[in-house]
Design a protein that fits this description.
The chain has 142 residues and is mainly α. Helix content is 67%, strand content 0%. The N and C termini lie far apart (44 Å).
Length: 142
């Protein structure tokens, strides 16, 4: 369900690119809307997503796939480890990231080397990231 633009971490900026990204996202959402209830029940059972959640996790920006792992890395957290050890938390964080409207600010700050003074208050996952950092510090004390 990923577009080639999203796979490359490219955020569509021009009006034509944004329209194409919107169209791809709408097509994916339409596919989800047309799934038979029996098929969606299996998805719901596997993921815990409601139909609304599944439809809205389809992001029209690279947040969940590219920005969130980079944001975690900037905080000193290994995204792959979290995804492997706490898959439900990671999935919820990805869903939250997909809904975020601040992905351009996030992308700018990551590309600039991080947020000034480590402040990411606009990040909807900031509380989870801070909790992961605290857990990392407490578990790894000598």
């Amino acid at each position: 369900m990923k577009s080639s633009d999203a796979d490359e971490g490219h955020v569509p900026h021009g009006p034509i690119e944004r329209l194409k990204a919107w169209w791809r996202t709408e097509r994916m959402r339409q596919e989800l809307r047309t799934l038979p209830e029996s098929v969606f029940d299996g998805i719901r059972q596997d993921t815990g997503f409601s139909r609304y959640d599944a439809e809205h996790i389809v992001a029209d920006h690279p947040g969940p796939d590219h920005l969130m792992p980079e944001r975690l890395a900037a905080a000193g957290i290994d995204a792959a480890r979290i995804e492997g050890e706490q898959p439900l938390l990671y999935r919820d964080m990805a869903a939250t990231c997909a809904k975020c409207g601040s992905y351009r600010k996030c992308e700018r700050e990551i590309n600039a080397g991080g947020s000034p003074e480590g402040k990411w208050e606009y990040c909807l996952n900031n509380g989870n990231i801070e909790a992961l950092k605290a857990a990392e510090k407490s578990c790894c004390k000598g």
